[in-house]
Design goal:
It is a single chain. The protein is built from twelve helices and eleven strands. The protein is an alpha/beta fold and 318 residues long. The chain has a domain at 127-278: Isopropylmalate Dehydrogenase (3-Layer(aba) Sandwich). Strands 3-2-1-4-11-10-5-6-9-7-8 form an eleven-stranded mixed sheet, sandwiched between helices. Helix 2 packs across helix 12 (292-311) and helix 5 packs parallel to helix 6. The protein is globular and about 60 Å long.
Length: 318
Amino acid sequence: MSTAAVIRKHEKYERLLERAKALPPLPTAVAHPCDESSLTAAVDAANAELIRPLLVGPETKIRAVAAKVGLDLTGIEIVDAAHSHAAAERAVELVRQGRAEALMKGSLHSDEFLGAVVKKDTGLRTARRITQSFIMDVPDHPEVLIITDAAVSIAPTLEDKVDIVQNAIDLGHALGFTEVRVAILSGVETVNPKMLSTIEAAALCKMADRGQITGALLDGPLALDNAISPEAARIKGIHSAVAGHANVLVAPDLEAGNMLAKSLSFLAGADAAGIVLGARVPIILTSRADTVTTRLASCAVAALVAKARREDPTRAVA
């Protein structure tokens, strides 16, 4: 692959990184960064001045991992916590104390990590549902694509989808979208009483018409082709500002969203930065399979979300 092709592949992420690097590093509690992947991600983001990490976990283990892989922890604060469960709870506590404005998952299971976030009395819940979005940099596609929810909401109800959509809309604004265009995906583009996803898509669009969902243009149900391809939308005779031009894709359930995101990653060479929204602060979920660019992009997204939240807390961006 040529150098030009590599640069072109990441140009959308580079724009996000440039915007985020203009901001002060985001104070971020990193829960249990006790393997090479998670600790390297935190240190790389610190070196890029995207975050100011507080490493929360067993100090001796964190320092041992750093020594093993040659990471310099000079100037990085370590908050000692005995094990992964304690690290998750302590990271959340740091947010509640105002010492951190974001959370980042280390080498612990997502359920354990998010379990501390959603605790009734000591967590970080808001009136919004906790939802996840991938911010996809797809080669040859003109702008980033938000795909939601592909990691948290397994079988969302219509009520859940209202928050999934609104969180994604607010994310689009935080990322600087000039217009947020939301496609509610299904297997077909017409309402079919035998396909619940089509009925819920139509309901979500009507809720947007009534002001129950705000800040974006919605259309659905739409099949994937006529959501992102102007030619497919033209052939099907679908005329809307969203059809063929969507920049937010709302999957009917987690399985569909996860398969869509991973198909783009492994078949189309896309990168997938991840963010969890709906809590008091943005939550960075990185994977051991993530590239350095993807990890940094996830931190950049969190920084932009935190900035939007500070500027307009009433939007409940995170």
